[in-house]
Amino acid sequence: MKKLIIAFLFISLGLFLTGCRTKEVEVPLIIYDYDDLYMQQFEELIYDNKNYNSYRFESYDSKNSQIIQNDIINDVFLDNPRVIIVNPVDRLGVYPIIEKAKEKDVPIIFINREPLKEDMYSYDQLFYVGAKPEQSAIFQADIIIDLFGGNSYYLNELDKNNDNNIQCVILKGEPGHQDAEIRTERVVQELTDRGFHIDILIIEEAYFSQEIAKEKMTDLLVEFGNTIELVISNNDAMAIGAIEVLKEEGYFVDENDNGVIDRDTETWMPVVGIDGLPIALELIDQGYLSGTVLNDSKSMALAINELTNALVTGEKLSDIMSDLEDDKYIWIDYKKYTPNDK
Ligand code: GAL
């Protein structure tokens, strides 16, 4: 009997220790809004590029509400997480989240929506993985310049009224978002600095949303119709929304019905986006979208996983991450994409 009890105790201890060893660390991944097309793909890539066994992700949807996001964060902090990943709803309102993390000594990896510098430097365990919006605007300007023939003195036939000005409408993302503000300002500045005359008919806020862009584009066509020579969109989702309306209203006509717009013979309108969503790349192939800039979520996903693993396992960051700027920032380059890049 004694032997049996001892054997039982040994087995129980063994099971207990095995349990301890294999208990996975749960890393909350808190997304600002599951309805955002780019974030849907980004989240998937974060999972797909998880090359480590030291943790597993648990995702949360903040439903585009800072109140919901704050509740989620309060809840996850109750489990004493080793690290949390936050895609803020309001990048200007993260201070209370940081205060809480500081109090609990939990690192935060912010993604996609960049907090203000003063917030980022208020605690040494804050990280940001993202891209510099200026770069996307410069690439978008390159695409536009190529489209209009490359010479600021003699625009090509896309200058429909031949006034050597590009009449454009700009679909802007969410006001206050670094990408919406900087992409909008910088693309115009870049074109102007390079000698191109840009005549902005209107800047419409469509909050990065395909649906809102559809509504706005419908109104813009009533207001400006054929005078529009170019649609500049802060992201692909809004560009796609605009294209849907332009198609319905006869600004794209696939006359021979072969599924592709032949730019030499068929009616079309230049629309440029940013993100490089798979569906946007298809629209480029079909001749509807004139170009996009890849917002490289795959490289971001790899960096997020590398950083998460290091924070979970306690590795020294400077030993493994050479591209960590100021012990805080990982910047991922945008990439230009046009049909000619193929
Ligand atoms: C941007 C992206 C947009 C939208 C936004 C959400 O980087 O270009 O499409 O997803 O992030 O914060």
Q: Could you explain the architecture of this structure?
A:
- The chain contains 12 helices and 12 strands.
- With 342 residues, it is an alpha/beta fold.
- The protein has 2 domains: 26-131 and 296-333, Rossmann fold; 133-294, Response regulator (Rossmann fold, 3-Layer(aba) Sandwich).
- Strands 2-1-3-4-5-11 form a 6-stranded parallel β-sheet, with helices on both faces.
- Strand 6 (165-172), helix 7 (178-193) and strand 7 form a beta-alpha-beta unit.
- The chain binds beta-D-galactopyranose.
- Beta-D-galactopyranose binds next to helix 2.
Number of strands: 12
CATH fold type of the largest domain: Rossmann fold
Architecture per CATH nomenclature, i.e. the level-2 architecture of the largest domain: 3-Layer(aba) Sandwich
Q: Whole-Å distance between the termini?
A: 76 Å
The number of helical elements comes to: 12
Tell the overall outline.
elongated
| Order of strands in the sheet with most strands | 2-1-3-4-5-11
Uncertain runs: 13-21
What are the main properties of this structure?
4-stranded parallel sheet; 6-stranded parallel sheet; Rossmann fold; binds beta-D-galactopyranose; 2 domains; 342 residues; alpha/beta
